[in-house]
Design goal:
This protein has 92 residues and is mostly helical. 42% of the residues lie in helices and 9% in strands.
């Protein structure tokens, strides 16, 4: 996430996402593991989190906003990246 962890909009987005997953049968801690990272708009912090997430070797990564997706794209070409709120899905 490009948001800060204390950002109300970011927290609302995460809660809505988790509710939608649960409606489809995916429950955190039961059949789903989600690792959240909050960039707070700091590109260096976002890049560090991208590397940290890739090291966890997840099945898929969800990135929110262009800076987060760009950092993920620079860090991995093998883990699928699902993205939302992105102006350019193929950053240079």
């Amino acid at each position: 996430m490009s948001f800060a962890q204390t950002d109300a909009e970011g927290q609302h987005s995460v809660a809505t996402f988790l509710e939608a997953l649960e409606e489809m049968g995916w429950t955190q801690g039961r059949n789903l593991q989600i690792e959240h990272r909050w960039g707070g708009g700091d590109r260096d912090h976002i890049q560090w989190h991208a590397a940290e997430l890739v090291e966890l070797k997840p099945d898929v990564i969800l990135g929110q906003a262009t800076p987060a997706v760009a950092a993920l794209h620079r860090t991995t070409r093998t883990i699928p990246i699902v993205f939302v709120n992105v102006s350019d899905p193929n950053p240079a």
